Amino acid sequence: MNPDAPSTELPDIFAILAQKFPANPLLKFVYLWEHIVFSLIIILILGVFSYLACRKKSMIPGRLQSLFEIFVAGIDDFVCGIMGPKGRRFVPFIGTLFIYILFMNLLGLVPFMRSPTASWSTTMSLSLCVFFYVQYTAVKELGFWGYIDHLAGKPRGALAFTLVMPLFMLFLHIITELIRPLSLSLRLRGNVWGDEILIGLLSSFGLKGLPLLFFNMGMAVLTAFVQAAVFCLLSAIYFALVLERDEETVQ
Description:
By secondary structure, this protein is mainly α. It has helices spanning 13-20, 25-32, 34-54, 63-83, 91-107, 120-142, 144-151, 164-203, 210-242, 247-250. The protein has one domain. It contains ten helices and no strands. Helix 6 (120-142) runs antiparallel to helix 8 (164-203) and helix 8 (164-203) runs antiparallel to helix 9 (210-242). It is globular and about 65 Å long. The relative contact order is 0.13.
């Protein structure tokens, strides 16, 4: 990355400092890894809010505690509605993903900040976390050979005796599993990065572009929520596909 290169994106604080002090190696290093730095800023903010919400828990919650309880209840209903009762153990993981991605998406709307999710390295890392957790869950729930049998497809019918269809389905499902991190990461990154490009372009129009700029800022907030929800929805579906479901859950 080159801070002197022209870009349609709005400059962030680290790009400005790197351009202002080009001989400073620390600023160059921070600028090179700015998406990680912005991610750590979000972690710090969420950590502080979590501490404030949980330090004085009471039966009659305050505003911040009530907000967190509403969020947790909503995520629990969301996940269990997709995965059934077994999905409750995944609520902390998926809920953390949602709020972390949401805040990273929104950070780019703050002046001189940038969304870490506009970087493919960030979204791919999140997608790989989901991928490996899903594979671990599948092997734990079904066993290694049970997971292979699951990937071979059910029901198989008469073609199962020829091994043609099971092997074909096994190959197809393995390719599908490997493609999922790529599709998850590119979908999130593409939408967030596209919003940043559009906002940067409209900002260059000056006063004439203010109405469109404000409109697209509002749409970017909506997109931030939607993309975080879509990422978590697909993650929950991936978990649901490898869980053995009870009869009452299926009904």
